[in-house]
Design a protein that fits this description.
heterodimer, A: 815 residues, alpha+beta, D-amino Acid Aminotransferase, Chain A, domain 1, eight-stranded mixed sheet, 24 helices, globular, B: alpha/beta, Rossmann fold, 5 helices, 6 strands
Chain lengths: 815, 145
């Protein structure tokens, strides 16, 4: 009897494991999503901390790294559980990155094989321990439009140690991976790249001793021929080492800065604070002729834009003295007055002031900027040194009283980047050309659109009524250290155009008028500065955490070995997890519990859905309809997809050339193994959607989270492909890029691959964006062949925008 | 359309900040000085306790986990020496238990790190109102070290 019982139990056994197996796989997938979202949220929080919104300590940094590492490890673990350990190489990459983070936390400056010499163009904040603060500032300033810094390279602390030979060569090689010959070769290579030997261009060589402030222990060497750079570097390093040892500071890290010679006809300094202490609200500019250093003009200017010149002390020069601009003091200039003896025009003085204050903002501390004017009129920044003696500055006695009596225009919102700025208010629209924005003005906008990014190079501060401390524009504001507050209630009404205001972004307060005492005290030391160790630590950690390199799943390096950061790992895992789920039935035969169902919807394309939990009503049949769909993001997308206005565009007639030009790519796809071709598949949960679409010869992916946890809300959109000539495909990519940008996506385009990300916006905005993407999918069917000219493209954008992109007329600014 | 300025009428309260992380002391000190408070900072609790014996502070902002005397010990000692002193406990290891214990021992407030500057300033503002309500008067001008 028990045998009959056992036979019947054997017949029923195969079905049960399949159900549990499928459920387990779904659970793995959901865990990947959850840990992925948690990791992204934590990365965003760490990046936000750079803006000074929060007071945090080292414990916060260490805890963040620990929790984030746990999330990333879980993502990798669950992917391997989902895929049967197909991606175990991820653990090696994870461990390598984790080890680097631990190294940074332990205070070890060497995380990679440290280079002996680095070009200025390749230096970022995270390299500060290797190259020093001054080199970082010069490198960052070089990237700003309008700023001129002589090109050059830095012999790093590592390279300098090897050259000095202060330790046994074997020990140095073991620690640094470098030998003297390696360093010599690196310097020669960098020198040749900077100034080819046959060009005869002299260079300057300066050694810096790194510390609280970068000091110059040995005079700068000028006019160094390229063939003598290596020996000059070695010599000045040796001299500097003796100098610092003599001051009782042996072992002080040294770097050497080698740059193109400026050949200045005029040079001088800008002190961003008047260090006599009598007028701390002023900055000081000096100018002199290199051949007459004792004869120096002096200017005192206000620190706030437009940097009015308050006093000037100009050396009297003979009426026929040849000035750097080719004129003489007795020449009559355009306004009918005599030119005078001043070495600099007022505009030039103010331009120097603006450049120096940009540096102060980058450094987060008062500084001295050394500048030089080339014969062609280009003003070059040569050196930046922080000003000593101001770190412990106490607030002026009148500051508290001034704040007490000041009228507050508005308060609240989120600090994006702390700092104090003052100026005239200008309401801005998203399509404002940055050149039209008055430099130093306070930008006020309704939304924190990424398209306002270029404007930040000129704004004294930026305020928005809608927006959060996360998002692309916020990241740019922090990168540029432009004081910014987003999400201020009723901002547009409370802060009208043309009013003068003072913004204290750290305390989310906007005062009416220019508060000189507050500007003098600046942001005080309440803010987080690049010179603070915690700021630098966070930057260095984020370098291995946040950047996303692996964007294109079709690229050859989209693999565990291609992952360089935690963000790369979780992005890779997410993509592979979606891919696994989409092919689950094929890879797990007998997984009878798994079924995709074709949606019964009135739409121009067929979509199958895989419910991972809560995406489809439990009692829906084999072909769910619109009323059965419970996934919020899928509902929104389909709403747009089925809009009658989007369907009205009939496919354009295809020219033979267009078909043939599509063949090399599409034929490869058609001939590819079945696994490479997915139909239209929606993997849907209650709050989650991953939709891959093949519409004609276009391939796109929408990945979205629209749920009750706003910090995790996001849309990721990727598009590639098209059956048309390259020129037409490019227009379509531009069209899609423009649509995404108008929806406030952060967009990147490479050829006809367009990738957009939208995150941390209000749920309604996210929903609207999904509807627009659905409409975009339908609207642009085979539009490649219709966009024959740029004007066609613009017209199609106008048509699409009118119907699907509701532009708020009140968003138009007054410029 | 101007708003009432919360800084208006603020009295010069004497404040002590204790945290073994210099960055916290630096930023809090600057923020409080900016609005007119007299501030002293300490990165070790032993020195801070010694100073509490010498002078009376209206507000003490103390970290919880420190070497030597921890924040709860500082809290108890500060209240012992001057019952009118208001103590704010800040910590990166916030739990229900530590919060409960802090309040039980007389803390005015308990703030988890990381915190916004505005959170502490709001807390200090409530202390000002509290002191005014109970008739506590700030030290005379110029008495801060």
């Amino acid at each position: 009897m028990w045998q009959r019982f056992s036979r019947s139990s054997q017949r029923s056994a195969p079905a049960a494991p399949a159900v549990w197996r499928i459920q387990s796989l779904f659970n793995n997938f959901r865990r990947i999503l959850d840990h992925n979202n948690a990791a992204l949220e934590l990365m965003a929080a760490m990046e936000r901390a750079l803006g000074g919104e929060y007071i945090f300590d080292r414990t916060f940094i260490e805890d963040s790294v620990r929790i984030l590492s746990s999330c990333v490890h879980h993502v990798a673990y669950n992917l391997n559980a989902l895929t049967g350990n197909t991606h175990v190489a991820l653990y090696d990459r994870f461990q390598e990155i984790r080890a680097k983070l631990d190294q940074i936390l332990a205070g070890d400056p060497i995380t990679d094989p440290a280079p002996a010499a680095v070009r200025l163009a390749d230096i970022g904040w995270e390299m500060e321990p290797l190259v020093g603060l001054q080199a970082v500032c010069l490198a960052e300033l070089r990237r700003r439009p309008g700023a001129s810094v002589a090109d050059g390279f830095v012999v790093t602390t590592t390279g300098s140690r090897v050259l000095l030979g202060s330790m046994p060569a074997e020990d140095v090689a073991l620690q640094t991976g470098l030998r003297q010959t390696d360093v010599h070769e690196a310097i020669r290579k960098a020198t040749n790249a900077l100034a080819p030997a046959d060009a005869g261009q002299p260079l300057t060589v300066a050694v810096l001793a790194l510390g609280e402030t970068d000091e110059v222990p040995v005079p700068e060497q000028e006019g160094v021929p390229t063939r003598e750079v290596l020996q000059t570097v070695s010599r000045v390093l040796a001299e500097a080492a003796v100098q610092v040892a003599g001051r009782g500071l042996p072992g002080t890290p040294l770097v050497v800065l080698v740059q193109e010679a400026v050949a200045a006809v005029l040079d001088g300094t800008v002190h961003t604070r008047e260090v006599t202490g009598q007028r701390p609200d002023l900055l000081r500019v000096t100018a002199r002729l290199p051949q007459m250093p004792e004869s120096e003009d002096l200017y005192l200017l206000r620190r706030a834009h437009p940097f009015d010149i308050l006093t000037s002390q100009v050396v009297a020069r003979p009426f026929d003295f040849q000035l750097p601009d080719g004129k003489q003091p007795h020449h009559v200039v355009s306004n009918g007055l005599l030119r005078g003896s001043a070495l600099l025009t007022p505009a030039a003085v103010q331009m120097l002031a603006e450049m120096a204050l940009t540096l102060e903002r980058m450094l987060g501390a008062p500084c001295v900027m050394h500048w030089g004017l080339r014969p062609d009129g280009t003003c070059m920044v040569r050196r930046v040194l922080t000003l000593n003696g101001l770190a412990g500055e106490e607030p002026a006695p009148d500051l508290a009283e001034a704040l007490q009596q000041a009228a507050v225009r508005c308060r609240g919102g989120q600090t994006v980047q702390s700092g104090v700025a003052a100026g005239r208010v200008v309401h801005v629209a998203e399509d404002l050309s940055p050149e039209k924005f008055p430099a130093g003005a306070i930008a006020v906008a309704r939304t924190a659109s990424p398209r306002l990014g270029p404007l930040l190079l000129r704004a004294g501060a930026i305020l928005t009524q809608i927006g959060t401390a996360a998002g692309h524009l916020a990241t740019v504001a922090r990168e540029l250290r432009v004081p910014a507050v987003f999400g201020i209630p009723d901002l547009i009404r409370r802060v009208p155009p043309d009013m003068n205001v003072t913004v204290d972004a750290g305390e989310t307060v906007v005062y009416e008028g220019i508060l000189a005492p507050l500007l003098r005290y600046g942001a005080a030391r309440a803010d987080l500065y690049p010179t603070d160790p915690e700021y630098r630590l966070l930057r260095r950690l984020l370098r291995f955490i946040q950047p996303l390199r692996l964007v294109d799943p079709e690229a050859s390096d989209f693999s565990p070995h291609g992952c360089r950061t935690y963000h790369d790992i979780i992005h890779f895992c997410h993509e592979r997890a979606v891919n696994e789920l989409a092919h689950l039935h094929r890879r797990h035969p007998g997984s009878s519990g798994l079924h995709t169902r074709r949606l019964r919807i009135d739409a121009p394309i067929q979509i199958s859905v895989l419910d991972i939990g809560g995406g489809i009503a439990a009692d829906a049949g084999a072909a769910p309809g619109m009323s059965d769909i419970r996934s919020e993001p899928l509902v929104a997308f389909l709403e747009g997809l089925r809009r009658p206005e989007a369907l009205g565009n009939a496919p354009a007639a295809l020219r033979l050339r267009d078909i043939l030009s599509g063949m090399p790519r599409t034929l490869a796809v058609l001939n590819a193994p079945p696994d490479a071709m997915r139909g239209n598949l929606a993997i849907a949960g209650r709050d989650y959607l991953n939709l891959s679409l093949r519409l004609g010869y276009h391939f796109s992916v929408v990945d979205a989270y629209l749920g009750p946890d706003p910090p995790r809300s996001h849309i990721y959109f990727r598009f590639v492909g098209g059956l048309a000539e390259a020129e037409l495909r490019a227009r379509r990519a531009h069209f899609i890029r423009d649509v995404l940008a108008s929806l406030d996506f952060n967009v990147s385009q490479k050829g006809d691959l367009v990738v957009g990300r939208l995150k941390l916006v209000a749920p309604e905005s996210l929903r609207s964006a999904l509807i627009a993407l659905g409409a975009l999918t339908t609207f642009t069917r085979q539009l490649d062949t219709a966009m024959r000219t740029d004007s066609h493209q613009r017209e199609l954008f106008r048509v699409f925008a009118e119907v699907f992109l509701r532009v708020d007329p009140s968003n138009q600014g007054d410029v | 359309m101007a708003e009432q300025n919360p800084a208006a009428g603020r009295t010069r309260l004497r404040t002590m900040i204790i945290d073994d992380e210099p960055i916290v002391c630096k930023r809090l000190k600057s923020a409080l000085q900016k609005v007119g408070y007299a501030v002293e900072t300490f990165t070790d609790s032993t020195s801070a306790l010694g100073r509490l014996k010498e002078a009376t502070f209206d507000i003490v902002i103390t970290d919880l986990k420190m070497e030597g005397a921890d924040g709860l010990q500082v809290l108890m000692r500060a209240k012992e020496l001057s019952p009118r002193t208001r103590v704010i406990v800040i910590t990166g290891f916030a739990t229900m238990e530590t919060a409960r214990e802090s309040f039980h021992k007389g803390a005015f407030d308990f703030v988890a790190k990381p915190f916004k500057l505005g959170d502490i300033l709001e807390c200090v503002r409530r202390i000002e109102e509290d002191l005014r309500r109970v008739g506590g008067s700030p030290p005379p001008q110029g008495s801060a070290v």
